[in-house]
Amino acid sequence: MAMFETFSKRKKRLETARQQDVYQYECLPQPFRVQVVHIWNTSIGIYYSSSGYLTPASKLWDAIFSTMCRERGVFFLGYAEDDQDKQCRQFMLTAATDEALDIIELSFRIIDRISRQLGTQEKYGAQITQDANDAIEELNQRFREHGIGFQYVEGELVRVDSQFIHAETVKPALSLLNQAGFDGPAEEFTLAFEHYRHGRLKESVAEALKAFESTMKAVCKARNWTHSPGATAKPLMDTLFKNGLIPPELESHFAGLRAAMESGLPTISNRTSRHGQGADLVSIPQHIVAYALHLAASNIVLIVQAHNSMK
To answer: What is the pLDDT of residue 41?
Structure first.
C-alpha cells in the first residue's frame, strides 16, 4: 500500500530541512529504547539463577548491572527485589539520555567482546538467537532510523558529528543550503538522509543526486545562467565551468576534480537507482550509499562556496 504524505509529515520534513544537522543527540525516543531492550533479549538471553549458580547469560546481566551500579554510586538500578536483567531493562526505559547511552555502550561492549564467545550450547540454554555482529548492526540501524547521531564502533559510542567527513562536509552543506534560493536542494538533501536512515538506499542515492543537480540549478538561476529545463549533472557542470564558477586559470588544476564530480555521484545513481534495474535485482551496499551522500555534500559545499565568493 502506498504511503500518504500528510500535512503534518510534510511540515515536519520541511522544518527538518532547515536544521543544521540531519541527526540529533539529546533525545532517545521511547520506541528506540524499547528496541534496544528487544536486542538485549535476543543477544544476551534470559537471566536464571539457581542455588547461587549463575548461567553464562546471567553472568553477562550481572556484569552490566554491577558495573552500572558501581559507576553511578548506587546499589540498585530499579526495584531491589527484581533480578538484575529486569532492573537493567527498567533503567534503559526510564533513565536520562546520557545514562541510557552509558548502559547501551556497556551492554554492547559485553555483547561484542563476551557474548560472542559463548558456545553453541550456552547460547541455546540462554535462548540467544541473535549473534553479536547482527546485534551491533541492528543497534546502529536503529540509531539511524530514529535520526540519533550515534554509532557503536570498536567498543564505544561515537557521535556522528565527531567524524571528520560529517563535520566537514554534511553539516556545512546543510548550513550553506539554508541561505535564500536553495529551498529545493535543502529539502532533497535532507530527504536523502531520511531515506538512508530508514534503509531506503536506492531512494537515498537518487535524492542525493537530485540535491546536487538542484544546487547547480539554483546557482544558475541566481546568476541568470541559462540551461535546458531538463539538464542533468554533466551539462549543468558545463554551464558552471563555462561561466567561470571555477576561475579559468585554475581549470587545468581542477580538471581531475571536474572529472570526479562528473563520473562519481551521477554514475552511482544511474547504475543503481535512476534507471530501470532490468531482470536482476540491484542491491546497493550501505557503505556505497554513505559514500554517495558524502560525495554529494562535498560537491554542494564546493559549488555554493564558489558561488558565494564569486563577484
So the answer is: 93
